[in-house]
Amino acid sequence: MIPQRPFLKWAGAKTRLIPAIRPTVPAKARRLIEPFAGSGAVALNLDFDHTLLADANRDLVDVYRELRRGGEKFIARCAALFTTEGNTAAVFYARRTEFNTTRDRPRKAALFVYLNRHGYNGLCRYNSRGGFNVPFGRYVAPYFPRKELRAFRALLKRCDLRCADFRAVLAEAGPGDFVYCDPPYVPATATANFTAYARAGFGAAEQRELAAGCRAARARGATVVISNHDTRETRRLYREAAECRSLLVSRHISCKGAKRKKVRELLAIYRPAHA
Length: 275
Known about the structure:
Blueprint: H1 18-21, E1 31-34, H2 41-45, E2 50-55, H3 58-70, H4 72-79, H5 89-101, H6 105-118, H7 146-156, E3 159-163, H8 166-170, E4 177-181, H9 204-219, E5 223-229, H10 232-237, E6 243-250, E7 262-270
Helix pairs in contact: 3-4, 3-6, 3-7, 4-6, 5-6
């Protein structure tokens, strides 16, 4: 089965990991919980009737809320921004400034989709003042994901959307829940650190608290799967997992295809005692 692609470009999106994640879902799981929703690729490709889709990035959650609420009207608002005239550095930076200052939520959500597709490589990054600061991507003709927006809206109809910290979301997990965590990764190298995708950073302390939250959710009866770089540090963090699977995954941060290398990622699987 070929995984469905989400409408957002996303650094580290899990479309390619779907074949590895799907077999870890227990047959009796009734609800999917994602504390780090990101592009929603996992929720889009796992067939759950009930999903809690959460993220600390309010801008991202607002896009999902506006898509669910506005439907075709919201999709048309987004489409109006995808023009030849709009694909210039001058327009991109003007719209980025508008995104960072407007209080019009539907407009801001549409601008998020525009910036995501016209900005550099699908990055979502903020400066220390909370301003979105991804540079212009310089694409010849950015793709407008109309089909993908419609498919994702169908998913959203059976989702509980929440802008929340991962700790609060994990605390809700219990029997019958399948939790998938895709946090900002532990840096694979000293120069590869993309943790500022939300206004608050995600450092070593948060990584430790996430591992502890996964253990606690497992103790309450949930199955938890977490992905991260396969490093000595993550192996230590997830040493109490029932299983750790190492996967070779293509990384698509570089804008040049020749420089896009495969890296080792880890799937840590926490299974409840009765599983």
